[in-house]
Amino acid sequence: MRTVLQGLRRLGALLLLPIALLLLAPAAHAVQWDAETLTVPADASGSTVTFTESEIKAGRKVFNNSCGECHAGGITKTNQNVGLDPETLALATPPRDSVDALVDYMKDPTSYDGEISIAEFHPSMRSADVFVKMRDLNDEDLRRMAGYILTSPKAQGTQWGGGKIYF
Ligand code: HEC
Predict the structure, then answer these.
(1) Cα separation, 96 vs 155, whole angstroms
(2) Residue from 76, 97, 99, 102 whose mutation best tests the ligand 1 pocket (most atoms within 8 A of CB)
(3) pLDDT-based confidence at residue 67 (cuts at 50, 70, 90)
(4) Which residue has the higher pLDDT, 4 or 111?
(5) Which pLDDT score is estimated for 84?
(6) pLDDT in the model for residue 117
(7) Alpha-carbon distance 153 to 132, whole Å?
(8) Is the pLDDT of residue 26 over 60?
(9) Burial of 86 per CB tally in 10 Å (0-12, 13-18, 19+)
(10) Which end of the chain has the lower number of beta carbons within 10 A, N or C?
């Protein structure tokens, strides 16, 4: 009887480890909202801005609703070459890898070479009469969406933008 109990106890200890690992694993993958992750370029001059976790969560919600149809996960469904990953944003003309530049894009988007306005084809405040999802957005929404776009690669790594920065 005693050996059976001891055996059971040993078995319990053995089972506990994988169970503990299973429980801890999701926590290890959870987004770490530290100040470094929440701090992104504010404008082209190199100054930075630090968002709060709730601003980013609010930004994600508006982004998924207004932009997710084409940009879920930071990619661009209909033009894989112009994604929302930091590398592609940085190489646009003008560079779009800051809050101000992204907000500017949402107001009046331009072609990747910066030559022409594409507001007619891309959702924007300028074309909110056509793109109804833009109608109820205010400046704060735009700022938070920019924050979400810029913090996502830091929080999600290669998942954001399909890992394009590592190609
Ligand atoms: C109907 C599909 C669609 C929706 C909805 C959409 N986009 Fe886009 N977006 C595109 C396409 C296509 C491009 C590539 C445009 C080009 O060829 O320059 C693009 C490009 C961009 C770029 C430029 C990326 C770069 O690397 O230069 C940004 C920034 C962007 N979108 C932000 C947004 C935001 C923010 C929203 C929501 C408010 C949004 N988009 C909604 C299709 C969409």
Answers:
(1) 19
(2) 76
(3) very high
(4) 111
(5) 98
(6) 98
(7) 28
(8) no
(9) buried
(10) N
Rounded CA separation 113/77 (Å): 19
* Nearest partner of 159 among 96, 75, 82, judged by Cα: 75
Ligand 1 atom nearest the C-alpha of 89 is: 26
Lookup: tokens for 45: 């001059």
Worst-scoring range by mean pLDDT, 5-14, 86-95, 155-164? Answer: 5-14
Query: Which residue would you say has higher pLDDT here, 157 or 85?
Result: 85
Tokens encoding 158: 């290669």
- Say which residue the tokens 């107001």 belong to: 107
> In ligand 1, which atom is closest to the CA atom of 96?
27
C-alpha 51 – ligand 1 centre gap (Å): 22
Distance from the first to the final alpha carbon of the chain: 61
The Å distance, Cα 140 to ligand 1 centre, comes to 19
Instruction: Evaluate if residue 100 carries a pLDDT over 50.
Output: yes
| Averaged pLDDT for residues 87-105 | 98
Residue with the smallest CA separation from ligand 1 atom 41 is 67
Q: Is 34 left (phi over 0), alpha (psi -120 to 50) or beta?
A: beta
